[in-house]
# Entry
Amino acid sequence: MDEDERAVLAEFVASRAPALIRVAYLLTGDRSSAEDLFQSALSKIIPKWRSIRHADPEGYLRAVMYREQVSWWRRLRRRRESPVGVHEPVVADPAGGTDLRLALRAALWQLPPAQRTVVVLRYYEDLPEAQVAELLGCSVGTVRSRTHRAVTRLRQILPDSELLEMQR
Amino acid sequence: MSDPFEGLLRSTLTDIAEEAPTVRDSLTRAERRARSRRRNTVAAGAAGILAVLVIGAPFAYASRGEDTVISPQPGTSVPQPDRSEPVPAPPAVASPVPISPEDPTRPDSAVPAPPGVASPVPAAPGTPSPVPAPPGVASPVPADPADPADPADPSMPASPVPAPPDTRSDDPAGPPPSPVRR
# Structure
């Protein structure tokens, strides 16, 4: 990679890294894991930068991040170093909706990586099901079923789902 | 899926995303990691090739050894002629079972060899028999009377075809049919 291409790559990383890091943090739920996921995906696109720089490098990098998150090797590594405090139970707080948000956050980390990735893509990135399926390399039916299972699981984990209905 | 729950999910995800860390100098570390990945890939490939060679070499050597017998002493590995093997007759000795060009009706009659030459064993016509017979044994197949190599001549070698002891080859009435098969 010559200096010109490296300058373009540096500019791309500087401009898009914050948004990509946010997505990585949502996918992993841990700061160090998010940084590791982002750098791992970036290291995979550096050898191919010459061919993808004129296409859609951000989409390519996002797809690498999503697939890396649900990959088999990363799942093994994640099993070895589980983040602390993720599975702590959240008790009900009568002060307001803060407890519900905390409970939802804790419930999100308990989802499997594939289901959490679908939730992030559907409700944070606001991507349609077809585009999510294309990014993850699976069918639309798989995306639909994973979304349904993830929401059902979140409802089961949340302590007071009915309380949310009352607040609305 | 209800809309309030979906809204809560979206707002929670946005809140979580705001807590994301800020990464600096990520490109340099990513480049270092890319170089490390490339180096590991090359090393793993080389290790795989080396493993294939180390594992496959004994098998290849063993399969080659099945075809040829390896002598423990390479200097003495030249095969020596076996004593039991037939020794070809010297060039000066005529073939023991020739086909006489002068007598086509008796192609099996043997031309006696000079005295002292090994007597051949009955064999197919045209094939020299290497096993010598003791001199002086009568030939069961009489030679052509017109042939100068008369078997009655004690100086001539015996016929290559073995015959009964009482059979002489100097019968003027004619020789019996040769037992040598064509």
Observations:
- Chain B touches chain A through 30 residues (CB under 8 Å).
- The first helix of chain B runs from residue 3 to 18.
- Residues 95 and 116 of chain B are 14 Å apart (CA to CA).
- The two ends of chain B are 103 Å apart (CA to CA).
